[in-house]
Amino acid sequence: MFANNDNNITITDSVTSLGDFYFFGRGSLTSITIRDSVTSLGDGCFAYCKNLTSITIPNSITHIGNRCFTACDNLYNVNTTNKHPEILKLIEYANNNRKRRYDLFLNFIHYDPEIIDEFDDINTLMYDVFDFVV
């Protein structure tokens, strides 16, 4: 059904739909790649996956259930060219999460500017401390 290492999952080509609440509350999930064979994501499919940071969504997705990504507060990387209205909302949500994370980073640096000296460069600091890449 899917290949995984518990944190990163790739949905296999044999799957055509992810049902309601399929990954609901799966705290260990950090990234998921959905293959072109999948056309539907059920209600609450990824809801409360609080550590989910990255998702790849193919153009084959034509149905996204209600509250599919509710409370995915760390999701900031959505890889897709799919223009489904719900996916466009998800991209906006992820961008807001990214902005919130970046603002936190700026406040952190403002509080202690010398922290930068302990890292090779600003991108290393952002990645190491905030798991965030510009």
Q: Please, could you describe this protein's structure?
A:
With 134 residues, the protein is an alpha/beta fold. Helix content is 27%, strand content 16%. β1 and β2 (8-11) form a beta hairpin. It starts with a strand and ends with a helix.
Summarize the structure.
The protein has 134 residues and is α/β, with parallel strands linked by helices. Helices cover 27% and strands 16% of the residues.
**Over the alpha carbons, how many angstroms does the gyration radius reach?**
16 Å
Mean pLDDT: 81
Class of secondary structure makeup: alpha/beta
Spans where pLDDT lies below 50 across 5 or more residues: none
Shape assignment: globular
Characterize the largest beta sheet: strand count, sense, and whether it forms a barrel.
Answer: 5 strands, mixed
> What is the CATH architecture assignment?
Alpha-Beta Horseshoe
Q: Count structural domains.
A: 1
The helix tally amounts to: 2
Strand content: 15-25%
SSE succession? EEEEEEEEHH
DSSP helix fraction: 25-40%
Total beta strands: 8
CATH class: Alpha Beta
Query: What fold name stands as the CATH topology?
Result: Leucine-rich repeat, LRR (right-handed beta-alpha superhelix)
First CA to last CA: what distance?
A: 33 Å
Strand order of the largest sheet: 1-2-4-6-8
